[in-house]
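Regression test case RT-17, inverse folding.

Input:
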């Protein structure tokens, strides 16, 4: 091959590479919508596989796949609220589901986030109430939070919203971890197994009413939902204004009577750096296809546009502000 032909070939290859780079960049830009740059591959923290966050996050991923051209949303199993908040801060998650109490602490830099404020977290929308469900073996002699003294208790995984709530309930009862015979950091599935096997006496679950992990346990083990009411609820509400009283109806779990407890609210949060149009389009897609959320889990049926701002403790993302302003909700 002559030097001239070789030079022409190199120039052609270089030109082709430049065309691919430019058109690839244009395709990426248009895929995001509105011609904006940024990631098209998003990831979302969805909590425990055995919980409610994971299937609801999965439903959102399916909605993104079918309704948002050029955008993908991968759901990751994670350690729930505190972990998800820290992963938002570090930039390792684009979106996450967290409890509103933990989001409040994260944004303000309080409690577990002292010195590590999650300033880049913004609210997108609220999902459903999450009762603090203190589940005890029926034969454990636990009828109030004060009865946890000297008992073996699962207080939730390290860095979870359940752990935060459990420690606050202990405080409201005038107790600390040192007053327990054992404080186990277990995920929901492990806590249920430990209760079933008699290795612990009680466990805290901050999950939706009817959560499968408790429903399945109640089928094979006699349990009770320990009431968190009266002075206990009053102290918790005085400690933090995001707690609200809620009733768990009788027979939500096999042979378990009605119980009063307190609840927080699960919310969807995202990186402040996400484009306004992407967030607006994402929220629009979710509420235009809310039937997908409703069919993903029984708790999904509690997700509605009317309650989409309930318990939101942090500033909304501008894309969310636009969406809810257009709905007359801001």
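Golden output:
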């Amino acid at each position: 091959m002559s030097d001239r032909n070789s030079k022409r070939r190199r120039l052609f290859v270089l030109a082709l590479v430049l065309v691919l780079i430019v058109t690839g960049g244009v395709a990426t830009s248009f895929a995001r919508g509105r011609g904006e740059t940024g990631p098209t591959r998003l990831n979302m923290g969805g909590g425990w596989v055995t919980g409610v966050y994971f299937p609801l996050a999965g439903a959102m991923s399916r909605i993104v796949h079918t309704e948002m051209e050029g955008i993908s949303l991968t759901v990751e199993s994670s350690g729930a609220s505190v972990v998800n908040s820290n992963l938002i801060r570090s930039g390792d998650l684009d979106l996450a589901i967290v409890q509103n109490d933990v989001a409040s602490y994260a944004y303000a830099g309080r409690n577990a986030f002292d010195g590590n404020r999650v300033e880049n977290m913004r609210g997108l929308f609220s999902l459903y109430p999450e009762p603090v469900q203190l589940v005890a073996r029926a034969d454990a002699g636990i009828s109030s939070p004060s009865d946890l003294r000297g008992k073996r208790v699962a207080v939730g995984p390290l860095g979870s919203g359940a752990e935060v709530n459990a420690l606050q309930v202990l405080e409201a009862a005038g107790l600390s971890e040192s007053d327990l015979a054992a404080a186990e950091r277990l995920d929901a599935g492990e806590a249920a197994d430990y209760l079933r096997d008699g290795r612990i006496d009680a466990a805290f679950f901050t999950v939706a009413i009817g959560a499968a992990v408790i429903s399945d346990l109640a089928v094979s083990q006699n349990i009770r939902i320990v009431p968190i009411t009266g002075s206990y609820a009053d102290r918790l509400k005085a400690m933090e204004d995001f707690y609200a009283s809620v009733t768990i109806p009788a027979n939500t779990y096999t042979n378990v009577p009605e119980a009063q407890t307190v609840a927080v609210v699960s919310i969807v949060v995202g990186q402040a750096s996400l484009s306004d149009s992407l967030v607006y389009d994402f929220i629009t897609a979710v509420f235009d296809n809310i039937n997908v959320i409703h069919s993903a889990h029984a708790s999904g049926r509690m997700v509605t546009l009317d309650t989409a701002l309930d318990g939101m403790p942090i500033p909304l993302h501008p894309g969310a502000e636009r969406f809810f302003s257009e709905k007359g909700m801001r």
